[in-house]
């Protein structure tokens, strides 16, 4: 795949979330926000450098970074305005690396690859719970729904695709300790497209729903959302029909986590969304989906008693009555479902003890909910069913999990991630090798960890952990979790990636329980507790439950079912071209702006990102097509600038030779250039950055030349128009003179005289009609008279808007031409310094006119380039500012935020920030991007306040300042900072931030003389002088 130079363009977000472009090619920008592709890290083997680059970008709200073609996404835990329709259009049809990393770039690149290469694609999204996987898949689906070609039918399908998300989230997501909306199942969705690239269908596969959550939740966690949404959002009639009460605490399956409500979740609103979505995806009221959900709640409230001989009986038959009504099953059979077990081969009935009855009840609840979820997915698939010619798959799968207590679910999840890592390495290496072979470059062997040994340890027939687990579950006689662990030790005792307490050395035994086994995964070591492995793997209901529920019970154990499903998924993914999104959670508290390096390092390790980077950097760090490389860097070589007309490979060769590339730093393929070291690319980027001022001058010259040619062409056209008008006018004038002379000399016969007179009178009568033979003589005479008068009364100044009233049919074109001619002459006489002065005065007028008392006195005074001489600015301060040159300086008085003690300061403005200076020391730096606003009073004083964000620990609180040239200073500051619309003129008082959570107030009054004192209630009192 191709990577981009950092100079391509980067993204950044200001304090209000608006996106702005950042040229990351400059070394200072790279130091601030890092590189946008980890492949360009100089020290790519350093995990610390990797995490530092992530941290820098995260602090600048740049949550996306590439590793080659892999997108790394860090959850910001706040809304960023980078997902608008305008942003979608910005990424639509643009080469993958031409602009800053984004989920839309991956979406668009995948879509265009499907269209152009006619090969199915897939996007694999992985990460911890709370890392943003579900949100990423939503953004991808939304991008396709908005940007793909659509008709009414396709729009309806796109709506169904989007509406399937809240339904699946309601039934498959839950609040966990790490995430308030955690997906508790794996999801693979195929989006099908027709030959035109329009979405026409879809299909969803679900994996490993966490059914145990239905009957048990850890403290602080909740059951699946749908239970709480039903109780909170359902109306009274619906709840009465389902025999439900609104309080979740009344249901055993909802009280174990002791978390019925979550502040970040509105169950009532989400219920409305789900109810609105169900009809869209094809559900009807006759399909009693909610009956099953209510039935599960009633099933959880079914209680058992224990007789004298240990037999079990149901004590809450009213719950059973409600249950059979809702589920539509046989009452008699259901009454004994949790009481006896039937042995078919021996034709025996065995009573269950109390614990077995509870387990049977919970097993039924899990089975009912699990099959309901599967049925729900099938119904969604029916509503999306329409076969397309091409497919883009979305895999939203759980990432590698290492919890304090790891059980059967974590074993399956981590096995899935081992297979995905194996697939990823295989496809990445294959893609790299194919690209090298296509370009005719020798393939270099890549050293990497092959995790096939771990996959075989888990899935190998007869010897793998899953086979041993199935064998133990099916073996006759007494089996338990401990016997399963012993069997693992006997079979896998010598495996280098398998350890138990018995097989471990003394140091490892101290941290391992006797009921645990350890696997050395590709991402690290994980201890699994075997308690519950056999029960969770069996996942079978006894004969009574099968009779009651009339459900097909699969004889295959859960782990083998999952392995088979995973194998099918691997086949699906191997048949497609993959793209990858790796999601990272920056902190466990879900706080925006907080970056927990320990937690991030843990995820970087378990997502295999460093291994990914090492594989990608094994050969060349950067590669790009000849035309793109030449187009970007051609200004650096005189022979290639402005255009290269030969073969592309010759042009690139000429360019790199001029730049002094060494043979070991690059290779030329058939259509791409390959650069080995990032520093080579950065040197080229910095050279381009230094060259840009010269390029700008060339472009400006060309642009000005084009404007001059256009202006000359318009003038020639105007001259031709005037020439024709003057010719017509001259003819009329000559005719009129001849006629007048003839009349005066009495040489025209009476008949002719009478004819002319009649034409004149007739024209006067028809003067308001369209130009016609009857009025042409009269109207021509009127025009001639108008032109004679106009010649003597033309406006002499651009400020003179007078113009003689034109006659009917007389064009306004002459007026426009004359005014334009006067404007051009005036503009040519204006000097650049005066033009700059006028621009500043116009801005000052926009801000202060009719708003501030002393504005009229400032109008006639020129704004100076600086109120400080160069010698007045300390040399040490100038050296500290470095390349940031002072554009304006003024002496100000700063008032302390506590006590309001006045202190003399200098305020220096640069292009990107302002500084407050106390003699040789910079006391405060004010970044324009962080400046929230500028406040001044409406009176004649010189006070102004610079408002800074209180939540930013790097910035001090608001600055309270006074200047004798306040209108000049505020105008220049607002223009440099781009904050003209953020100047606030307050008539009575100004509030400012003293410290986080504390405010101060400045009161303004009029008086006989200017005075600044500390007033009542701790306010700062400013007395402004009356202006007469």
From TrEMBL:
GO molecular function, one term: ATP binding
Matching PROSITE patterns: IQ, MYOSIN_MOTOR, TH1
Secretion signal span: none
InterPro entries: IQ_motif_EF-hand-BS, Kinesin_motor_dom_sf, Myosin_head_motor_dom-like, Myosin_TH1, MYSc_Myo1, P-loop_NTPase
The entry's keywords: Actin-binding, ATP-binding, Motor protein, Myosin, Nucleotide-binding, Repeat
Pfam families according to UniProt: IQ (PF00612), Myosin_head (PF00063), Myosin_TH1 (PF06017)
Compartments in which it is found: Cytoplasm, Cell cortex
One cellular component term from this protein's GO annotations in UniProt: microvillus
Residue ranges constituting the TH1 domain according to the UniProt record: 852-1026
Domain Myosin motor: 34-689
CDD domains in the record: MYSc_Myo1
An example Gene Ontology biological process: actin filament-based movement
Region (Actin-binding): 566-588
Residues the entry annotates as binding ATP: 127-134
Superkingdom of the source species: Eukaryota
Similarity-based family: Belongs to the TRAFAC class myosin-kinesin ATPase superfamily. Myosin family.
The protein, known as: Myosin Ic, paralog a
């Amino acid at each position: 795949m191709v990577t981009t130079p950092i100079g391509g363009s980067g993204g950044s977000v200001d304090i209000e979330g608006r996106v702005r472009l950042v040229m990351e090619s400059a070394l200072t920008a790279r130091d601030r926000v890092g590189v946008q592709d980890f492949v360009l890290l100089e020290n790519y083997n350093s995990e610390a450098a990797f995490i530092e680059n992530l941290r820098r970008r995260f602090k600048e709200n740049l949550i996306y970074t590439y590793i080659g073609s892999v997108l790394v996404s860090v959850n910001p835990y706040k809304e960023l305005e980078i997902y608008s329709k305008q942003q979608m259009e910005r990424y639509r049809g643009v080469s993958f690396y031409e602009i800053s990393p984004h989920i839309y770039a991956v979406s668009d690149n995948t879509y265009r690859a499907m269209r152009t290469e006619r090969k199915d694609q897939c996007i694999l999204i992985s990460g911890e719970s709370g890392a943003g996987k579900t949100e990423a898949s939503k953004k991808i689906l939304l991008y396709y729904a908005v940007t793909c070609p659509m008709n009414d039918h396709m729009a309806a399908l796109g709506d169904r695709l989007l509406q399937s998300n809240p339904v699946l989230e309601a039934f498959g997501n839950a609040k966990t300790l790490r995430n308030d909306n955690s997906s508790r199942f794996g999801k693979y969705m195929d989006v099908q497209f027709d030959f035109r690239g329009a979405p026409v269908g879809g299909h969803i596969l679900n994996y490993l729903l966490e059914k145990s959550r239905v009957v048990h939740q850890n403290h602080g966690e909740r059951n699946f959302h749908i239970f709480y949404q039903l109780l909170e959002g359902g109306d009274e009639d619906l709840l009465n029909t389902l025999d439900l009460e609104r309080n979740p605490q009344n249901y055993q399956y909802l009280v174990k986590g002791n978390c019925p409500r979550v502040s970040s979740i509105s169950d009532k609103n989400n219920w409305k969304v789900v109810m609105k979505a169900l009809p869209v995806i094809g559900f009807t009221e006759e399909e009693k989906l909610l009956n099953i959900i209510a039935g599960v709640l009633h099933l959880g409230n079914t209680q058992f008693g224990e007789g004298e001989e240990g037999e079990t009986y149901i004590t809450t038959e009213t719950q059973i009555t409600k249950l059979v009504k809702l589920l539509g099953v046989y009452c008699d059979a259901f009454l004994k479902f949790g009481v006896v077990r039937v042995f078919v081969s021996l034709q025996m009935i065995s009573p269950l003890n109390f614990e077995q009855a509870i387990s049977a009840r919970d097993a039924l609840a899990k089975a009912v909910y699990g099959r309901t979820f599967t049925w729900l997915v099938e119904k969604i698939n029916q509503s999306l069913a329409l076969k397309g010619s091409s497919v883009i798959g979305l895999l939203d799968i759980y990432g590698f999990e290492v919890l304090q207590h790891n059980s059967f679910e974590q074993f399956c999840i981590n096995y899935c991630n081992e297979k995905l890592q194996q697939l990823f390495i295989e496809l990445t290496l294959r893609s790299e090798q194919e690209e090298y072979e296509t370009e005719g470059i020798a393939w270099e062997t890549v050293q990497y960890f092959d995790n096939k040994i771990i996959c075989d340890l888990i899935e190998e027939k007869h010897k793998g952990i899953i086979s041993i687990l199935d064998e133990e579950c099916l073996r006759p006689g007494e089996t338990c979790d401990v016997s399963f662990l012993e069997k693992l030790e006997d079979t896998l005792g010598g495996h280098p990636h398998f350890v138990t307490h018995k097989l471990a050395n003394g140091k490892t035994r101290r941290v391992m329980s006797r009921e645990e086994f350890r696997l050395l995964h590709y991402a690290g070591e994980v201890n699994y507790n075997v308690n519950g492995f056999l029960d969770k793997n069996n996942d079978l209901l006894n004969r009574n439950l099968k009779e009651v529920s009339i459900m097909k019970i699969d004889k295959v154990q859960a782990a083998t079912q999952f392995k088979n499903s995973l194998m099918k998924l691997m086949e699906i993914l191997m048949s497609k071209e993959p793209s990858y999104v790796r999601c990272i959670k920056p902190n466990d508290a879900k706080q925006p702006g907080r970056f927990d390096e320990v937690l991030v390092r843990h995820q970087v390790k378990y997502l295999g990102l460093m291994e990914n980077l090492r594989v990608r950097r094994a050969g060349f760090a950067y590669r790009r097509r000849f035309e793109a490389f030449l187009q970007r860097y051609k200004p650096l070589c005189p022979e290639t600038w402005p255009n290269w007309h030969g073969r592309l490979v010759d042009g690139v060769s000429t360019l790199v030779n001029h730049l002094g590339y060494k043979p070991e730093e690059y290779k030329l393929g058939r259509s791409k250039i390959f650069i080995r070291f990032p520093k080579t690319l950065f040197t080229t980027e910095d050279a381009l950055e230094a060259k840009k001022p010269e390029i700008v001058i060339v472009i400006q010259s060309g642009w000005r030349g084009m404007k001059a040619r256009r202006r000359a062409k318009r003038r020639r056209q105007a001259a031709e128009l005037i020439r024709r008008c003057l010719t017509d006018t001259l003819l009329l004038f000559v005719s009129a003179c001849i006629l007048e002379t003839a009349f005066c000399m009495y040489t025209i016969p009476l008949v002719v005289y009478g004819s002319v007179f009649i034409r004149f009178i007739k024209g006067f009568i028809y003067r308001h009609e369209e130009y016609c033979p009857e009025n042409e003589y009269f109207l021509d005479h009127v025009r001639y008279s108008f032109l004679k008068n106009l010649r003597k009364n033309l406006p002499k100044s651009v400020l003179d808007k007078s113009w003689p009233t034109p006659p009917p049919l007389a064009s306004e074109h002459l007026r426009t031409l004359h005014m334009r001619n006067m404007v051009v002459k005036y503009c040519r006489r204006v000097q650049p310094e005066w033009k700059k002065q006028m621009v500043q005065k116009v801005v000052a007028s926009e801000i202060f006119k009719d708003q501030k008392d002393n504005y009229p006195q400032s109008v006639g005074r020129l704004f100076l380039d600086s109120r400080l001489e160069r010698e007045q600015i300390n040399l040490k301060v100038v050296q500290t500012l470095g390349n940031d040159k002072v554009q304006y300086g003024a002496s100000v008085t700063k008032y302390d935020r506590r006590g309001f003690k006045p202190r003399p300061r200098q305020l220096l403005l640069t292009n990107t920030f302002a500084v407050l200076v106390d003699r040789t020391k910079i006391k405060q730096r004010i970044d324009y991007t962080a400046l929230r606003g500028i406040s001044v009073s409406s009176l004649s004083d010189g006070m102004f306040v610079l408002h800074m964000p209180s939540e930013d620990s790097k910035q001090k609180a608001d600055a309270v300042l006074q200047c004798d040239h306040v209108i000049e200073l505020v105008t220049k500051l607002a223009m440099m900072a781009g904050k003209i619309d953020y100047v606030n003129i307050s008539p009575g008082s100004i509030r400012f931030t003293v410290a986080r959570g504390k405010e101060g107030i400045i009161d303004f009054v009029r008086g006989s003389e200017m005075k600044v004192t500390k007033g009542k209630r701790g306010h700062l009192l400013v007395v402004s002088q009356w202006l007469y």
